[in-house]
Design goal:
single chain, alpha/beta, 8-stranded mixed sheet, globular, binds S-adenosylmethionine, methyltransferase, RNA methyltransferase activity, RNA binding, transferase
Length: 280
């Protein structure tokens, strides 16, 4: 983490779906409750005051204006198409995948799903410019990055190199690989949290290692807090929470082979007001 730089609260951006409504009609409608400007550069992009919440506004629920979601490390795309189903054809999903071959698999998954609001980007999520106006509407990011896969049975380790087998935690080469993965996961999570309009970031792994789970979350907490995020509690009724290695780890969720399930980990960061201090 570098030096702290104070930034002003960011405005909210909204793209009008001109297939359903004109930009002028949206401006007229929104002007009843908010100050609305047109973006200088992007056609049909509107700029609203920081903190404007339109989630339940009929313009959003009727699909006339769009909210975006990024699936940061997407292939083979199981969660991408799940997101599409949850969004029920509304909004748009940007599915980012680094590996060219896996991007093809992702494309295949997306095609089979019948979803038509998923855009595939074959590239490095770390290189996605969070200040690019085309990402100004991104409200949610799912980050399910490469991990050791130590929580899942070997026959399902489809995204690891063939030489990788199920982890043995005592093995020195495994622990050096886990530390490398952990370093990438920290970078990717910091990047996800730094998108200007993002309100919800889900970080998940299928690892049972603390280094890829609690340690990653703990390391980004100063940045997350400075940006106004808090850890929320996904599935509060679930009994197995994060390992008690920092205050707040009870918000995290773990499943474990001991539960008769594969090992999985989820952290959910939520903020109500965008803007704050960027440290990335
Ligand atoms: N979420 C997926 C699903 O449920 O089907 C599984 C994702 S898998 C755990 C992680 C993916 O992230 C791999 O396909 C890997 O190639 C990709 N990946 C790794 N580093 C990346 C990066 N820097 N940018 C984008 N994708 C990356």
């Amino acid at each position: 983490l570098g030096n702290k730089t104070a930034v002003k609260p960011k405005p909210r951006f909204l793209r009008v779906n001109t297939l359903k409504i004109t930009t002028e009609s949206v401006i007229e409608e929104l002007n009843k409750i908010h100050m609305v400007d047109k973006d200088d550069m992007i056609p049909d992009m509107l700029v609203l005051p920081p903190g404007t919440d339109l989630h339940n506004h009929p313009l959003v629920t009727d699909g006339k204006v769009f909210l975006q979601v990024i699936d940061a490390c997407a292939a083979p795309g199981n969660k991408t198409v799940h997101l599409a189903a949850l969004m029920n054809g509304k909004g748009s999903i940007i599915a980012c995948e680094l590996n060219k071959e896996r991007a093809k698999t992702l494309q295949h998954t997306v095609r089979r799903s019948g979803a038509n609001n998923i855009q595939i980007v074959n590239g490095d999520f770390l290189e996605v410019d969070r200040n690019d106006p085309s990402y100004a509407e991104v409200r949610a990011i799912l980050l399910d990055p490469s991990c050791s896969g130590s929580g899942i049975s070997t026959e399902r380790l489809d995204y690891l190199l063939p030489s990788h087998s199920r982890d043995n935690q005592d093995d020195a080469s495994t622990s050096s690989r886990v530390m490398k993965l952990s370093a990438f996961q920290k970078k990717a999570l910091s990047h996800a949290l730094s998108f200007p309009s993002v309100e919800r970031v889900v970080y998940s792994t299928c690892s049972i290692h603390q280094a890829e789970n609690e340690d990653v979350v703990n390391s980004v907490l100063p940045l997350a807090t400075s940006l106004g995020f808090e850890l929320a509690t996904p599935f509060p009724q679930w009994h197995r929470r994060g390992l008690p290695v920092f205050q707040g780890s009870e918000h995290l969720l773990r499943t474990d082979p001991e539960d008769g399930l594969e090992g999985f980990f989820i952290a959910l960061f939520v903020r109500k007001e965008v803007g704050g201090t960027s440290e990335e």
